[in-house]
Design goal:
Layout: H1 2-19, E1 23-28, E2 33-38, E3 43-49, E4 56-60, E5 65-70, E6 75-80, E7 85-91, E8 96-101, E9 107-112, E10 117-122, E11 127-133, E12 138-143, E13 149-154, E14 159-164, E15 169-175, E16 180-185, E17 191-196, E18 201-206, E19 212-217, E20 222-228, E21 233-238, E22 243-248, E23 253-259, E24 264-269, E25 275-280, E26 285-290, E27 295-301, E28 309-311
Parallel strand pairs: 4-28
Antiparallel strand pairs: 1-2, 2-3, 4-5, 5-6, 6-7, 8-9, 9-10, 10-11, 12-13, 13-14, 14-15, 16-17, 17-18, 18-19, 20-21, 21-22, 22-23, 24-25, 25-26, 26-27
Length: about 325
């Protein structure tokens, strides 16, 4: 009898997981809100007011929270990923743009564009743990799968930095292309990719020691990146070309450019690992790319000034 009860509980738990709706949280900077897309229907189901010209997005899958950076709001806003309501606001300092959360859900890191710093917060208490001086105009942030290392793109220094989250010290800083902005890390924590806005290329580095592996030419003013199809493909938004470059991560060659909306910026991958969502800043839309066919299969109206810089898809 006990075994049947346990089996029933497991079946119900699995059913609940299957019914859980994944969302995409798209910051609309000019509308001062966040559009929530239901990824099962590709429909906007809500616009959450967020003041301060929202830009960056980070989803805490462990705590069911979403963090939205507000460059003109001196910090970031906290949203509840279930109720889709704002639940908090945290002060950081100058102009927060890049934001990320550790995979274990315990820490939130925010890059301050003007103060050349990264602030690290306790996610549960939303209290500051440490503020570190980094390179000039820090932008993209990502944390390793083991939640040990924080990587920072220092745009005006043309560098990436690696920070030890145990000691809060910078371990490495390495030159990349001109004006790195968005960065992405593979699931094993082995390779890091940097979109270099002014040199129109992507830098590939070893995440362990920031050793440079390759530079790959892409389109005009690459902004952000996302991996898909078991990390076989890397997708890169090109602002000036209104396109997304597709890179084969084995050969480290660009294999295609896909036309999307005007001024594409933020990019994230659906939990199915197949569909890639691209926020188009000037169009106020999100383009949906099928990573298998390398075609745009849907376009979603989201709002004025859609940027969505960061990991904006919930699990």
């Amino acid at each position: 009898m006990l075994s049947k009860v346990i089996t029933l509980i497991l079946l119900l738990a699995n059913s609940s997981n299957l019914l859980a709706q994944p969302y995409a949280f798209i910051t609309n900077q000019l509308d001062n809100n966040v559009a929530v897309i239901d990824l099962t229907s590709n429909q906007v189901i809500k616009a959450i007011p967020v003041q301060g010209k929202p830009v960056g997005v980070a989803v805490n899958h462990q705590l069911a929270q979403v963090y939205i950076s507000t460059p003109e709001g001196n910090g970031f806003v906290v949203l509840d990923a279930d109720s889709l309501q704002q639940t908090g606001q945290v002060s950081v300092g100058g102009a927060s743009v890049g934001i990320t959360v550790s995979p274990d859900g315990k820490r939130v890191a925010v890059a301050d564009w003007y103060e050349n710093s990264v602030s690290i917060f306790d996610a549960a208490k939303l209290q500051l743990i440490k503020k570190l001086t980094v390179g000039k105009s820090p932008s993209g942030l990502v944390i390793s799968p083991d939640s040990r290392w924080l990587y920072v793109a220092n745009r005006m220094d043309d560098t990436l930095s690696q920070i030890d989250l145990r000691t809060f010290k910078i371990r490495n800083t390495t030159k990349v292309g001109a004006h790195p902005f968005g960065i992405s890390l593979d699931k094993k924590g082995e390779r890091i990719y940097s979109a270099n806005v002014e040199s129109n290329d992507v830098s590939v580095l070893s995440a362990q020691n920031l050793k440079r592996i390759a530079r790959i030419k892409v389109g005009g003013r690459p902004y952000a990146l996302a991996l898909a199809l078991n990390e076989k493909l890397l997708f890169v938004t090109n602002q000036d070309d209104d396109s997304v470059s597709v890179i084969d991560t084995q050969t480290l060659k660009e294999i295609k450019q896909i036309e999307v909306g005007e001024k594409p910026e933020g990019i994230s991958t659906h939990i199915d690992d197949r569909h890639v969502y691209v926020a188009n800043w000037f169009d106020g839309t999100v383009s949906v790319i099928d990573a298998q066919t390398l075609t745009v299969v849907d376009t979603i109206e989201t709002g004025d000034g859609s940027r969505a810089f960061g990991d904006f898809v919930s699990r």
